[in-house]
Amino acid sequence: MVRLRVLSRLASAFTTPFSPQDFLRLVDPLSSARQLRALVTAVEPETADSVTIRFRPGKGWNPHEAGQWARIGVEIDGVRHWRSYSLSTGAGQDPAITVTAMGTVSTALVRNTKVGDVLFLAPPEGDFVLPEHPRPLLMLTAGSGLTPVMSMIRTLVPRRPDADVVLVHSSPCPEEALFAEELAELADQFPGFRLVQWFTGERGRRLDLTTTSDLDAACPDWRDRAAYACGPADFLDAAEALWDREEGELRVERFSPVLLPGAGGEGGRVTFERSDQEVEADGSTTLLEAGEAAGVVMPSGCRMGICRSCLVPLRAGQVRDLRTGEVHGEPGELVQTCISAAAGPVNLDI
């Protein structure tokens, strides 16, 4: 260990003002002692507005479980932005994300990512994963909510002869349905996997979960299955309400936090002290969104109030938790900017 430190100091003497790590990255772009990185190995179109981005992580990556997500960092106009994306490949396979062009970061990933690009990473997280013991499963998805469930299907269906999975997926039309060809092939090959494609353009509406009628038709034994759901907030709200009434078993993965209706208040002026920026924010705009709109480089992760990667010290003022409506804040308190809004003038130490 002492010898390594001596060698490091000697190397630094020859590379100053740069570090030896800077030169090592010219040879290996994944080499970094401070930040996990990944090399893009393939960009595969899924629909007109969606791609699957496959990547090879550097050292420090933990193999993902089916259904987990990871924070992905991408630089846009010299600013690094972080977002959380579900990993769409099966457990044990090289990781990939499937992204739809919605929002600044996702659109940049879809339109601009090329083989050989370097992404920034954080290790996989999340507990929206397969059950520990085999059992009949029902997967309810809509839109891009299919991505974590696709990881589960790729993990389970081809590998387990006793797999018993029903997928009911809602999308506008066949051309906009993610993984449509692969899912159809899996349904043809494996009798334990049944696919119900629910095209809203043909049926005139999304799968209705306010009653049991659509589920009874799509999967008559749905009450006997462990259910998983992922998709837009109203879709998941309806699913949770239905399963509560039926006293069934449902696991949900949300891409946005559950906010209390009417939790926003008067808002206020938000001052980002170290960045020397100020912005007026209304009571329903999160501090994270306000900072990004002002050009401040804000830490973030899940953007749902779970991972706590967005914590920033509060210097003055109070904030409102948009999930509960609670107003709180003391100088020095770490606030979650992704689910907090200004409750009057606010100063943040960033």
UniProtKB/TrEMBL annotation:
<keyword id="KW-0285">Flavoprotein</keyword>
<dbReference type="Pfam" id="PF00111">
    <property type="entry name" value="Fer2"/>
</dbReference>
<feature type="domain" description="2Fe-2S ferredoxin-type">
    <location>
        <begin position="268"/>
        <end position="350"/>
    </location>
</feature>
<dbReference type="InterPro" id="IPR017927">
    <property type="entry name" value="FAD-bd_FR_type"/>
</dbReference>
<dbReference type="InterPro" id="IPR050415">
    <property type="entry name" value="MRET"/>
</dbReference>
<feature type="domain" description="FAD-binding FR-type">
    <location>
        <begin position="33"/>
        <end position="131"/>
    </location>
</feature>
<dbReference type="InterPro" id="IPR036010">
    <property type="entry name" value="2Fe-2S_ferredoxin-like_sf"/>
</dbReference>
<dbReference type="GO" id="GO:0046872">
    <property type="term" value="F:metal ion binding"/>
</dbReference>
<dbReference type="InterPro" id="IPR017938">
    <property type="entry name" value="Riboflavin_synthase-like_b-brl"/>
</dbReference>
<dbReference type="InterPro" id="IPR001041">
    <property type="entry name" value="2Fe-2S_ferredoxin-type"/>
</dbReference>
<dbReference type="GO" id="GO:0016491">
    <property type="term" value="F:oxidoreductase activity"/>
</dbReference>
<dbReference type="InterPro" id="IPR001433">
    <property type="entry name" value="OxRdtase_FAD/NAD-bd"/>
</dbReference>
<keyword id="KW-0560">Oxidoreductase</keyword>
<keyword id="KW-0001">2Fe-2S</keyword>
<dbReference type="InterPro" id="IPR039261">
    <property type="entry name" value="FNR_nucleotide-bd"/>
</dbReference>
<keyword id="KW-0274">FAD</keyword>
<protein>
    <submittedName>
        <fullName>Oxidoreductase</fullName>
    </submittedName>
</protein>
<keyword id="KW-0408">Iron</keyword>
<dbReference type="InterPro" id="IPR012675">
    <property type="entry name" value="Beta-grasp_dom_sf"/>
</dbReference>
<dbReference type="GO" id="GO:0051537">
    <property type="term" value="F:2 iron, 2 sulfur cluster binding"/>
</dbReference>
<keyword id="KW-0411">Iron-sulfur</keyword>
<keyword id="KW-0479">Metal-binding</keyword>
<dbReference type="Pfam" id="PF00175">
    <property type="entry name" value="NAD_binding_1"/>
</dbReference>
